Amino acid sequence: MCGIAGLIDFSKSTSSEQLCQIANSMGYAQRSRGPDGAGQWADPESGIGLDHRRLAIIDLTEEGIQPMISSSGRFVIVFNGEIYNYRVLREQLEKADSFQGWRGHSDTEVMLEAIEQWGLEKGLKSFSGMFAIALWDREKRKLFLARDRMGEKPLYYSKQGNTFLFGSELKALMAYDGFKKKVNRNSLSSYLRYHYVPAPHTIFENVHVLMPGTWASVSHDGTISKPKEYWSLLDCAREAENKIFTAPDTDIIDTLEDLLLNVIEREMIADVPLGAFLSGGIDSSLIVSLMQQCALSPVKTFTIGFDDKAYNEAKEAKLVAQHIGTEHTELYVSPKDALDIIPTIARIWDQPFSDASQIPTLLVSRMTREHVTVALSGDGGDELFAGYNRHFRGCSLWKKLEHIPVSLRSIMAEAILQVSPESLNELFAMLEPIIPEKLRMRLPGQKLHKLANVMDAESASDYYTALTSNWLNPETTVMSGREIVSPFQNRSMQPSTKNLTAWMQFMDAATYLPDDILTKVDRAAMAVSLETRAPFLDHEIVEFSQRLPMHLRMQNGQSKYALRKILYKYVPKNLIERPKMGFGIPIDNWLRGPLRGWAENLLSPERLADDGYFNGRTVRKAWQEHLSGEKDNHYRIWNILVFQSWMDEWDVS
């Protein structure tokens, strides 16, 4: 992985030296993405300047340095990511009569040659991997930007006056002197609902993020094309509706296992130390099990633990690691370790982002980087194989709720909300001995309050929106804000809702996965110069998952059935079977304790009034409800606090 940045001065009035200086300052702002080297390239006649920050993973020699010029001299590229099938492509490209030979053995050089021989779109379709690309065509004097299929690698862009800017992170654009930091209040409204800003929008007006699976072009005269798809998750989902696998279950599961083994073996290629995150859950345990099948020595695995049992998976992860035979490292972190991360959040996630699991993600990334440079993860398993509670319990509940009048459901919801989350947790703790194990859950009080907030939904899509919301009515909280409509909120951009579970899986994979999960992991890992790889997100795995029959996604009340059947070949059931925990920290209690003073300053009536973004009464009411224990509003409060601290960090008025 690396960091890329650049600009086009459409006036063409900037010298080569100045273009390189500006590009360098943009790249320096995101230097943790690539600590192993920096390079710039400029063409003043076209006004283009490029910067690359290198995290050396494959071909550690000078032949892998970027910006890289193609063999013909026509193309110049800066690239962030990895192309896992580059060796196969290399062999194919060598057969061409026009092939002139290789200078090194980097995947970047293979990408350039593929584009040279096959053209951009065919080249993009041939790449298996994660990537954000900026490619300058010296012949057409045109810049091409492209992003990988599932959105693992980010790419932001904006036209500021007479200059076009792009970068791996928003901070690269903000490093440009003429960048205007004008908050988009509509984006802010959507941020309050989801705790992230839905792509292709950003928190700033006139700044965008390139959507996954698309490319766009920028001409030297200032013409910017609309992004064009070269791959579509929606097309995969729609095509799969009529192509569900009908082979015997064992054949389907065996094929999936072989496919995963091939992908994982390919993703273990690196010229630097490599390991994996291991939580002890289904996804990471399966990835590590299959890695060990491909490895010649024990795989290095990493876990962090907490003394709070409600948030600790380290014991289970250690047992899984011992059974598989990995070289396991665990680190127990204190509340102070986690609290010390909070002042860095706004700098690392340079756009407001308030998924609180960002804190343990950063902690485990930091610890992992002390031992390896590359780590594989289980990200994507939940979205593709039906792992979230909403995919099975949520859908089952909706089938019952939709037959109950909305008015009656509202009364039921009010009854639940009359009891505080803490009281409900205590009640469930007393009843735990008689509750069936598959119905047990972590923090039941909070989950019941979440249920109450969705019970008055009038449709399945409204129900899903409520399930995935923090602030249910953010437009009443943001002054003069109207929620943005993201592409996938348009029904024409969605598959059929006949199968509600499959529909929810698609919505999660198209929105929550790239905008939350992958954003969280990319920024946390890149902040400590760690490359992460997610085998489940290989497009062959994604396309295969769309065709799984529903009984191989969920069976007998269990999620991710197909993955479980593979995992049980390597790890006993008793080490895996437990309630899904997630990757969290007790922010709710910290806001009432060690973070209270910090929060009070950011949420003071005077501060809220001076900033002018939020309805002070609404925010203060939510804060007081949380402090009293009447409601668990920590998601909503954390939303606001992260935005307020982000404003301070980036001097946004």
Automatic annotation (TrEMBL):
<feature type="binding site">
    <location>
        <begin position="377"/>
        <end position="378"/>
    </location>
    <ligand>
        <name>ATP</name>
    </ligand>
</feature>
<dbReference type="InterPro" id="IPR006426">
    <property type="entry name" value="Asn_synth_AEB"/>
</dbReference>
<dbReference type="InterPro" id="IPR051786">
    <property type="entry name" value="ASN_synthetase/amidase"/>
</dbReference>
<protein>
    <recommendedName>
        <fullName>asparagine synthase (glutamine-hydrolyzing)</fullName>
        <ecNumber>6.3.5.4</ecNumber>
    </recommendedName>
</protein>
<dbReference type="InterPro" id="IPR017932">
    <property type="entry name" value="GATase_2_dom"/>
</dbReference>
<feature type="site" description="Important for beta-aspartyl-AMP intermediate formation">
    <location>
        <position position="379"/>
    </location>
</feature>
<dbReference type="InterPro" id="IPR014729">
    <property type="entry name" value="Rossmann-like_a/b/a_fold"/>
</dbReference>
<keyword id="KW-0028">Amino-acid biosynthesis</keyword>
<dbReference type="GO" id="GO:0004066">
    <property type="term" value="F:asparagine synthase (glutamine-hydrolyzing) activity"/>
</dbReference>
<dbReference type="GO" id="GO:0006529">
    <property type="term" value="P:asparagine biosynthetic process"/>
</dbReference>
<keyword id="KW-0061">Asparagine biosynthesis</keyword>
<feature type="binding site">
    <location>
        <position position="107"/>
    </location>
    <ligand>
        <name>L-glutamine</name>
    </ligand>
</feature>
<dbReference type="InterPro" id="IPR029055">
    <property type="entry name" value="Ntn_hydrolases_N"/>
</dbReference>
<comment type="similarity">
    <text>Belongs to the asparagine synthetase family.</text>
</comment>
<dbReference type="GO" id="GO:0005829">
    <property type="term" value="C:cytosol"/>
</dbReference>
<feature type="binding site">
    <location>
        <position position="304"/>
    </location>
    <ligand>
        <name>ATP</name>
    </ligand>
</feature>
<dbReference type="GO" id="GO:0005524">
    <property type="term" value="F:ATP binding"/>
</dbReference>
<dbReference type="Pfam" id="PF00733">
    <property type="entry name" value="Asn_synthase"/>
</dbReference>
<comment type="pathway">
    <text>Amino-acid biosynthesis; L-asparagine biosynthesis; L-asparagine from L-aspartate (L-Gln route): step 1/1.</text>
</comment>
<dbReference type="Pfam" id="PF13537">
    <property type="entry name" value="GATase_7"/>
</dbReference>
<keyword id="KW-0547">Nucleotide-binding</keyword>
<dbReference type="InterPro" id="IPR001962">
    <property type="entry name" value="Asn_synthase"/>
</dbReference>
<keyword id="KW-0315">Glutamine amidotransferase</keyword>
<feature type="domain" description="Glutamine amidotransferase type-2">
    <location>
        <begin position="2"/>
        <end position="221"/>
    </location>
</feature>
<feature type="active site" description="For GATase activity">
    <location>
        <position position="2"/>
    </location>
</feature>
<keyword id="KW-0067">ATP-binding</keyword>
<dbReference type="InterPro" id="IPR033738">
    <property type="entry name" value="AsnB_N"/>
</dbReference>
